[in-house]
Amino acid sequence: MLIYAGSASRYFGLKLARILGVEYVSVESRKFPDGELYIRLEKEPRGEVAVLVQSMYRTPNDYLIEYFFISRTLKELGAKEVVGVIPYFPYARQDTRFRPGEVVSLSVVLELLEKMGTDRVVTVDMHLHRVQDIEEISKIPFTNLSVMKEIGKYFKDKIRRENTVVVGPDEEAEQWVKMVAGVLQTPYTVLEKVRLGDVEVEIKAKEEELIKRRDILIVDDIISTGGTIEAAVKKVKEIGANRVFVACAHAILAASAEYRIFHEGVEELVASDTVPSPYSVISAVPVVANYLEMLKSY
Ligand code: R5P
């Protein structure tokens, strides 16, 4: 097995190679003056399982094209299998045609992965809503891992468990808060969210009694603009919550997300390293390594 990484995930790839005890192969990637991409692999993958790591955050289109160039080349150069490790999977939220004429971006990305030589995909806490099981719409094996248990473990010694409730900002978040609350052995609840625009959301609470005078750990999969977390923090504080902590798998933190989160008085923001940020104190690498262990002996 050889580990390759695109420019979004070199550190992730190096850590993965170290844990697995396999070779990390450098990938030269640079732009020509006209913006086109030049890529060269330091070593060809002939006969080996080639793992290609590329998270696709903040500038997903650049990272996607780089990924496709490398994946296709790994296949051309004789990789036995190309395993795409995509810690943050882009376009997952556009999984249907909400309005006539819209592109179903998720289907396009899935089809391109397959056509560009990827044999198998591994991701982390993919945003699944209308599509409940990604394997049903992907033509290649697709595994969705989770860092939610790691988030639970991180908070074990940080919070007063007897007084804490794990809260999801919307009903979709139930799958994640359940896992975190399971590790912490605390109650959980989810709020109700209506999206009004790209940033603005309206949030209501069903179980106010559970939130009152409690420490709250808000857990979501993605923080993008921070609009969801801002509204959720406001709501739990309005109800009478004590301290509020926030955790997510993918801290995209677009635009003024940090301001939106912290000016509401959040104690701590914690995220995984699927998207590198100053809050990435939890690593998804051991979770991915554990899964890849079984492919090592191929
Ligand atoms: C969608 O429902 C997701 O689970 C997140 O709640 C959403 O992507 C967060 O986006 P934002 O930070 O822009 O509100």
Provide a brief overview of the structure.
31% of the residues lie in helices and 26% in strands. The protein contains 9 helices and 16 strands.
Report what the structure shows.
- The model has no long low-confidence stretch (mean pLDDT 95).
- This protein has helices at 10-20, 60-76, 105-115, 148-155, 174-184, 208-211, 227-239, 257-262, 285-296, and strands at 2-5, 23-25, 27-31, 37-41, 49-53, 81-86, 120-124, 142-145, 164-168, 188-190, 192-195, 201-204, 215-223, 244-251, 268-272, 280-282.
- The chain is built from 9 helices and 16 strands.
- It is an alpha/beta fold and 298 residues long.
- The chain is globular and about 60 Å long.
- The termini are close together.
- The longest helix has 17 residues, at 60-76.
- Strands 2-1-5-6-7-8 form a 6-stranded parallel sheet, with helices on both faces. Strands 10-9-13-14-15-16 form a 6-stranded parallel sheet, with helices on both faces. A two-stranded antiparallel sheet has the order 3-4.
- Strand 5 (49-53), helix 2 and strand 6 form a beta-alpha-beta unit.
- The protein folds into 2 domains: 2-146 and 283-296, Rossmann fold; 148-273, Rossmann fold (3-Layer(aba) Sandwich).
- It binds ribose-5-phosphate.
- The site of ribose-5-phosphate has 13 residues, from strand 13 and helix 7.
